[in-house]
């Protein structure tokens, strides 16, 4: 079962639990609730579980977007913070954009009221309510086997569109795209009937090379297009060429521009459909270009794509949010198996054979401190003479990932085991289980009072601190079902330094840790061993790390993971304050989160005093995750802002008064840069503001 709805043990209410993503959302309900089996047929949207119960009022743990539709599906109310909606007696379907998507069906009067941090849905009397939930998570429905021959790869990638839950513009919502089939390399091509390509009338022609096929995988998925061989790269709709994919920036540049143009236009056009939200990007685009939104929404996908590409790209591309991820792949056959995961994240794909920065470095470039290490430079050189490091090409994306020979110093080092382990992991629905290990008393400052994690009332954590573990104790802990391990201490080439010797993760019979942060010198190999043993992903170090900076980085990483950042985005934000490139990296699946963000999308606030000295200027940078990914919407909890913004990068600046900025900073503990100084938002007072 992907999603489970069950009664709360500790209070009157229910908990909705996503067993794949490890997400939880609890509702307080009056009177005390007893759940009965519900009917999935009561809901228009796809759902994973449904229950029925008697409710007079329910309370959300914090404010999220709530959309109300009538019996015909027309939206009648949209509620955020500071809402007060009184709806007359009728049949309603209520959509709650929580970390797990929730739907309610109810007949009667409905009142929705909220402040800046609390939200209630009231029905006036005890009323029968149907409640359903859907995970944002999806996984491959089948596996395609293919050879490394380009024509076979084209057939395999042509199946990616089978995952689309719609070919309407709503597929720009991440939860309606679905996960492409997995790919395995084999001796022959084998495509299950369940993942036959959709009939969209769209084709992508590319020269028969692996690099060309890799480059169009995400575009093929998003369009539901077949990939076929051709002399030149081009996109066809109903057998007519609508876009050459051979531009000044090559195939990869043309594919990226085409994908982003169609994605942005889909996000705008979908606002005349089931989700008529006031989207900032729609306001901006319709001021520049006269586009028939309803006609485009109703058109078949092949016609819609054709008409999209008639719109000048210069009118569109600057409105595209900062893209979430760029995946850099070696042209080797092994890269094939990463394509479904890159396409699922709507990642741009760059194919490049990187030359090592230095074929035999003792430590990563420019980093020769050995403070947290108990191993000498000579021993390091002798033990790992084969090490090489690469630096992937710079991109405009928020995050980068690499798969190929050598360890990347500026991107997530992908490992197929970690990506696949994500689908095998099953959350129990119990509190998030975190283990903090400090195996050197001199590094105890990083642990502090043991309050690095678990300071959120609405999200239960179990945090256990372990100090100076022996090898057997650490072995037993690593075999435990831990959601996250934060290790602080020395790491040698041979393993974790314990009080009675060294424990090598390669020797472990069982690994139960899902994610980890190994904050010790040269912890890459131990992290890789954990991935190979069953972990999903983690943060590790390439070389030696300075003790003072390592402690500060460790505490900051802990806070960001606690706030819902993924491993990759957490390290990205840390890079705003400390130098991490070449020192720290993410290994395995860097998109995994330890905890969920309250509003669904992790964000970074930046507060400055404008030159005119009137109020404050707020800039919000949003960081998509694999749930609320590209295509999701974000609305700041600011009374003066009534628009939605596409997730990804920095939103347009917002002017706020002193009381407004103080209130916003107090709502949720997120990173905030105030007058170029880093803070946690809830720690900022009016005295800290410029």
What would you note in describing this structure?
The chain is of the alpha/beta class. The protein folds into 4 domains: 3-134, no CATH class; 143-341, no CATH class; 354-588, Rossmann fold (3-Layer(aba) Sandwich), CATH 3.40.50; 603-688, no CATH class. 20% of the residues lie in helices and 30% in strands. The strands form 9 sheets. Strands 1, 2, 3, 4, 5, 6, 7, 8, 9 and 10 form a 10-stranded antiparallel beta sheet that branches. It has a 6-stranded mixed beta sheet with strand order 24-23-25-29-30-31, with helices on both faces. Residues 365-385 have low confidence and may be disordered.
Strand fraction band? 25-35%
What is the total tally of β strands?
A: 39
**How many helical stretches?**
15
Report on the biggest sheet: 10 strands, antiparallel
- Give the terminus-to-terminus CA distance: 51 Å
Overall morphology? globular
CATH second-level architecture of the largest domain: 3-Layer(aba) Sandwich
- CATH class of the largest domain reads Alpha Beta
Low-confidence stretches: 365-385
Cα Rg: 25 Å
Number of domains: 4
CATH fold category name of the largest domain = Rossmann fold
Helix content: 10-25%
Mean pLDDT: 89
Structural class: alpha/beta
Task: For this entry, give a set of tags.
10-stranded antiparallel beta sheet; 690 residues; alpha/beta; 6-stranded mixed beta sheet; 15 helices
Outline:
By secondary structure, this protein is an alpha/beta fold. The protein folds into four domains: 3-134, no CATH class; 143-341, no CATH class; 354-588, Rossmann fold (3-Layer(aba) Sandwich); 603-688, no CATH class.
């Amino acid at each position: 079962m992907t999603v489970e709805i069950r009664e709360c043990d500790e209070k009157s209410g229910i908990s909705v639990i996503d067993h794949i993503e490890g997400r939880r959302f609890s509702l307080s309900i009056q009177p005390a609730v007893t759940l009965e089996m519900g009917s999935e047929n009561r809901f228009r949207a796809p759902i994973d579980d449904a229950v029925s119960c008697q409710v007079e009022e329910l309370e959300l743990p914090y404010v999220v977007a709530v959309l109300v539709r009538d019996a015909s599906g027309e939206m009648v109310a949209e509620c955020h913070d500071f809402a007060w909606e009184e709806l007359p007696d009728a049949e309603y379907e209520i959509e709650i954009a929580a970390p797990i998507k929730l739907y309610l069906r109810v007949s009667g009067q409905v009142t929705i009221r909220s402040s800046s941090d609390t939200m209630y849905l009231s029905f006036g009397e005890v009323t029968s309510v149907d409640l359903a939930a859907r995970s944002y998570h999806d996984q491959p429905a089948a596996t395609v086997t293919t050879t490394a021959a380009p024509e076979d790869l084209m057939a395999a990638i042509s199946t990616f569109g089978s995952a689309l839950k719609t070919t309407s513009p709503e597929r720009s919502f991440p939860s309606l795209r679905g996960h492409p089939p997995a790919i395995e390399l084999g001796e022959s091509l084998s495509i299950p009937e369940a993942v036959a390509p959709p009939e969209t009338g769209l084709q992508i022609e590319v020269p028969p090379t692996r690099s060309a096929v890799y480059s169009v995988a995400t575009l093929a998925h998003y369009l539901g297009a077949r990939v076929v061989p051709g002399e030149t790269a081009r996109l066809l709709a109903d057998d007519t060429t609508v876009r050459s994919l051979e531009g000044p920036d090559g195939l990869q540049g043309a594919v990226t521009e085409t994908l982003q143009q169609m994605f942005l236009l889909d996000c705008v056009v979908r606002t005349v459909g089931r989700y008529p939200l006031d989207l900032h990007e729609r306001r901006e685009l319709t001021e520049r270009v006269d586009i028939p939104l309803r006609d485009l929404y109703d058109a078949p996908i092949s016609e819609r794509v054709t008409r999209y590409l008639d719109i000048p790209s210069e009118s569109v591309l600057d409105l595209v949010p900062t893209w979430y991820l760029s995946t850099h792949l070696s042209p080797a056959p092994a890269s094939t198996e990463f394509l479904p995961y890159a396409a699922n994240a709507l990642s741009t794909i760059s194919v490049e054979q990187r030359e090592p920065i230095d074929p035999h470095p003792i430590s990563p470039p420019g980093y020769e401190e050995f403070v947290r290490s108990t191993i000498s430079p000579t021993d390091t050189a002798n033990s790992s003479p084969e090490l090489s490091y690469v630096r992937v090409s710079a991109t405009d994306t928020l995050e980068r990932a690499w798969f190929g020979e050598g360890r990347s110093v500026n991107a997530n080092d992908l490992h197929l085991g970690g990506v696949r382990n994500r689908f095998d992991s099953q959350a129990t629905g119990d509190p998030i289980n975190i283990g903090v290990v400090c195996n050197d008393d001199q590094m105890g400052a990083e642990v502090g009072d043991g309050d690095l994690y678990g300071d959120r009332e609405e999200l239960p954590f179990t945090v256990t601190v372990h100090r100076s573990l022996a090898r057997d104790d650490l072995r037993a802990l690593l075999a435990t079902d831990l959601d996250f391990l934060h290790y602080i201490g020395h790491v040698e080439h041979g393993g974790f330094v314990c009080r009675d010797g060294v424990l090598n993760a390669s020797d472990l019979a069982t690994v139960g840790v899902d994610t980890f942060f190994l904050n010790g010198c040269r912890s890459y190999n131990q992290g890789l061993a954990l991935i190979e043993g069953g972990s999903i992903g983690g943060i590790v170090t390439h070389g030696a790390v300075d003790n003072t900076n390592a402690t500060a980085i460790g505490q900051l990483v802990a806070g960001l993971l606690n706030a819902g950042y993924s491993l990759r985005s957490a390290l990205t934000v840390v890079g705003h304050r400390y130098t991490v490139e070449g020192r720290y990296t993410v290994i395995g699946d860097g998109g995994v989160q330890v905890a969920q963000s309250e509003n669904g999308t992790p964000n970074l606030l930046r507060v400055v005093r404008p030159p005119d000295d009137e109020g404050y200027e707020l800039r919000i940078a949003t960081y998509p995750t694999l749930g609320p990914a590209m295509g999701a919407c974000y609305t700041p909890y600011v009374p003066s802002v009534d628009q939605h913004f596409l997730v990804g990068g920095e939103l347009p600046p917002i002017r706020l008064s002193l009381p407004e900025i103080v209130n916003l900073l107090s709502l949720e503990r997120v990173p905030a840069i105030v007058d170029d100084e880093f803070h946690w938002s809830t720690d900022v007072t009016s005295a800290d503001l410029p």
